[in-house]
Amino acid sequence: MSLDEFFVTGDPLILASQIAIALTMVGLIALITYLKRWKWLWSEWFTTVDHKKIGIMYILAGVLMFFRGGVDGLLMKAQTSRPELGLLDAQHYDEIFTTHGVIMILFMAMPLLIGIMNVVVPLQIGARDVAFPKLNALSFWLFFAAAMLFNVSFVIGGSPDAGWTSYFPLAGKEFTPGVGNNYYAIAIQIAGIGTLMSGINFIVTVIKMRAPGMTWMKMPIFVWTSFITSIIIVAAFPIFTVALAYMTLDRLFGTHFFTVASGGDPMLWLNLFWLWGHPEVYIVVLPAFGMFSEVISTFARKNLYGYKSMVLAVAGIAFLSMLVWVHHFFTMGNSAAVNSIFSLTTMMIAIPTGVKIFNWLFTLRKGRIEFSNAMLWSLAFIPCFTIGGVTGVMLAMAAADYQYHNTMFLVAHFHYVLIPGVVFAVFAGLYYWWPKMFGFKLNEKIGKWHFWLFVIGFNMTFMPMFFVGLDGMSRRMYTYSESTGWGAWLGFSAVGSVIMAAGFAALVYNIYWSFRYARRDVGNDPWNARTLEWATASPAPHYNFAVVPEVDSLDDFWYKKKAGKVGIKKSDLKPVHMPSNSWTPIFLGVAFGIVGFFLVFEWFTLAIIASVLIVIGLVANTFDYDNGYHIPVDELEEEEREWRGELK
User: What does the record note about the cofactor (predicted)?
Assistant: First the structure.
């Protein structure tokens, strides 16, 4: 392989990116070295097994991926803002819309949501950590290695270009002989292994580590949505693992699982992909529903209306999510009976979704609503998501889908589902739980700029897509003629995307400003909240709770706070056992990334040699007999006095 084949050349935008990446890496290494922070990073972050720090690293990675995926989106919008514009050629546009979809769903939405779950779920159930802390760290480092592997594709080797769904035969070697779609198959496989580990970890954590007295129907709703999401992960991700394994074998070793001429079937890929892909929508949306529920209940100063019906609705959505995948290919030759059945199951999923909308509306009714930034995002979500849901029911009608399918109408629909249903929730969750992570609030005034710019920009960006889609504009079009009349709509949409980007920039500035200037004396419960995470210090200590709380009711912290029964007794303090840091998760993450990189370029000898690193990491972990350490009572007492004052 020549150097020109290894590095992507010939495109000024990519050349600028390569230079920027190199300068950023050199600058970052120089800064850390100058500040003498390498040892601190290694001991406090790279080797940590603390669920809160792992959650923060997930969130940081998700924000970085949001930036990368957002730049891809802006480039697409710039290219289609005017008829016959030549900013991007067809190949570059194909690569950008492919990486945009993969990054936003798998490397932005997933880490942001799993990051918040990591921070919040153990605190809400009164646990001191997740069930398997070291496995939790490995999950993160596998995800991060996969994200870096996937992102390096656009400067080394070339990006995948068969769409985020990577349909065959387009994704096969015959039509895409480069290494781009190898990156897709291998990077997502590595990330998927990490996600599957997270799902197993959270299921065991919720089942086995709830505080005494916290029965199933006393769990916070966010714990419920995280738990059910984890069940979907365990049910759906192995399907995608098999599909990606078949894809890897087809591309790297010449098998023909998806090649018609050799006895394979491209529809096998579609069925396996969407058997994972549609539940994946609910993997990212259900935790978001839990976040909105927590925020709305807190800032309406009311119990969540219809708690039991909400739990049943979430469980119903999880069940139905596995029964609707065929609606993604109504137009691909199914019989009328098959299309009718899956049309009905798709419409049925609107019922439990509608139940939740009414749960939130009735929670707001007669509430003493406080319009914090977290609450604003939750309120904006309801009408925007409803637009996405209603258009989803339109798409569920198989006959009508022949008109809508593969048009920009569909693109507008799923953005109206995923951006309000995931991104708005992440923003609400960050504003709400930020004090629990860092001990200070994000600035509310700057947050309002973030809110209004992003929400206005979002609607300006995606509402016009409904109209050009109904007028016949196909998705994936990188150019169009002036005679179509789409120029004004798409130009307006491009302006909206810039306003959205300004909203994201306001969030980044808010984080910077708040780290520098925000007050640090917000207390452990700045929002007058209802659930257990607010019963401990902000930021939460590494042991979470000096004394594991006992739960008597749903929203137990709220009622005990009102009754003056919060606090702990000095006599209740006992040594706390905690897990030790470990180097094996980051070592294994790096090893998987190296092996994956060699497999992308089909350097099998190097991949086999590098696989020895994985074996070394697994063997080292097997013979790691470190059983953790105990925090003595006097240390616990000192830390608790710092924020509680006198103990009882």
Answer: Binds a copper B center.
Give the closest residue to 429 by CA, choosing from 66, 118, 69, 68: 118
391 and 413 in contact (C-beta within 8 Å)? Answer: yes
pLDDT band at 1 (very low <50, low <70, confident <90, very high): low
Half-sphere exposure of 403 (CA within 13 A, CB side): 12
Q: Cα(58)–Cα(70) distance, rounded to whole angstroms?
A: 18
Render pLDDT for 287-313 as a digit per residue (tens, 0 to 9).
999 999 999 999 999 999 999 999 999
Beta strands in 170-314 (DSSP E): none
Strand 629-631 with 576-578, pairing: antiparallel
122: confidence class by pLDDT, cuts 50, 70, 90: very high
Question: How far apart are the C-alpha atoms of 638 and 238, rounded to whole Å?
Answer: 47
Q: Tell me the HSE value of 10 on the side-chain side, using a 13 A CA sphere.
A: 11
One-letter amino acid identity for 579?
A: P
Distance CA 408, CA 297 (A): 36
Distance (Å, whole) CA 539 – CA 520: 10
In 3D, which of 429, 628, 437 has the Cα closest to residue 55?
437
Q: 303, 275 in Cβ contact below 8 A?
A: no
| Predicted TM-score (pTM) above 0.90 | yes
Task: Give how far Cα 217 sits from Cα of 213, 229, 311, Å.
Answer: 11, 17, 9
- At 32, give phi and psi (nearest 5°): -65, -40
The two tokens of residue 191 are: 């990330």
Lowest mean pLDDT among 218-227, 376-385, 636-645: 636-645
